[in-house]
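anyone else get weird line breaks when pasting these?? whatever heres mine. first is seq + tokens for prot A
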Amino acid sequence: MFVGIANTPRDYAWGSTSAISGLLGTPRSGGPEAELWLGAHPGSPSRIIDPAQTGGATTLAQWIARSPEQAGTDRLPFLLKILAAASPLSLQAHPTPEQAIEGFARENAAGIPLDASHRNYKDAFPKPELIYALSETFEALCGFRSAADLHVTIGRLIQLDAQSPTPQRGVLRRWLDQTGGDDSLGAVFEWLISRGEGVDDLVARVVELARSVPGEFATVELLADVYPGDPGIVISLMLHNVTLSRGEALYLPAGNIHAYLDGLGVELMVASDNVLRGGLTPKHIDVAELIDVLDFRPAEVPYLRPVVSRGVELFSAPGFALAHVSSGGSVTLDGPGIIICVSGSLSVRGGLSAATTSRGESLYVTPDEVELFFDGAGAAFVATGG
């Protein structure tokens, strides 16, 4: 069964005013359009275009709650988004399944309201995610660099400090002295995020030195403009600064600290609201819980490489999969699926029925369609379980 769905983009302040409408050919709202949600998340469930198909249910969440057998699930485990960042999002990380279950139960037992600003765990689910670049470039921070790499960066800042008219060697030296081997990264992060002794002076000095060599520390300059004085500015130098080209993807597992800085992409995640913030935000930061969740081990940039076959690029990760499809492609569903067409028009045939989708249109697909075959002149993304 193919069911037409739609939604209105979320108007978070960091969103682009034109990228989502430009991709999908929809009218601009006149304000920021940050994320288009396709799924059953209660925060913004997709609308059913023809409620007659779903027994009168007007949203995907309502239909699944009323008729799980017809919808093919009692909980849609993933959320598909079109994300358009015109300015940096907060640094954040997400828990493991075990941490989510334990944290949700703990905060429930403590009587913390679900909508409390200081609540960390809004549900009992993890929130790993995948981001696929749709814009020519997509900028992000993700995961910790090695201490050796960080030493090089600090050394360059010390060199710039020494060349300045008013050197402040002690400010940077404190940072360098605390950064020993890779096993020191957690302690350094905690010092920074907690605004320990000397951190405010360090942030100010790093920004001043970055502005003395325009472009060399472009991310520091960007973050300082948006979040002046925030320790996340210095934390960003501990992380991989990644530029994805169109068609490249990252997988961000539990414990990986990350932030999207700029660009248009397709985001796919486990449906959850569990976010531990780590800087670049006015919102609540629970330092102790964040430290427990973060994985401080240096690692390579977590690129997610696709399996490519005729008409399909398949990006698979634990819990979900994203397929980029064009004419001649086929996708096997693992549970329910969601399709969004991003160019042209495609006909799609499943095991029981068929549909047509054009640029800007989306479909929910029940799992009994099993395998989807695409034909026409266009391109789409298909999200399913994994």
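and prot B, same format (seq, then tokens)
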Amino acid sequence: MRLMHTMLRVNDLDQSLRFYCELLGMKLLRKQDYPGGRFTLAFVGYGEIADSSVVELTYNWDQHEYQLGDAYGHLALGVADIYGVCEQLKRNGVKVVREPGPMRHSNSSGGGGSVIAFIEDPNGYRIELIEEARQSAH
């Protein structure tokens, strides 16, 4: 078994594709209209559908507002320079709901934990950014 995708319902497909593809650097992997069901599916991600977990954006033609609910948490993306990424996203109008900094309540010895931030997509879905350790060229 493998995790194939996570589906998010979106209010405006073009706005969501701009956010995920242009601002977060994902690729549009597949997009198809389903006129009989009055919806469009768009799959975005960093790798191919066959071997990566991706995000399915579902746009229902007749419904443009959703309740997020309190069970949904967030998506998580690894980034190399969390402070630079957050500044660039803010310049592009992305809402940063938790500025970059060490994760609170970390159990790691020495007090330092992962450096994280949270942003919101155009629909209000939270996305956690986690700074990944850089690989040394030496």
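btw re prot B: The first strand starts at residue 5 and ends at 9. Residues 93 and 122 are 10 Å apart (CA to CA).
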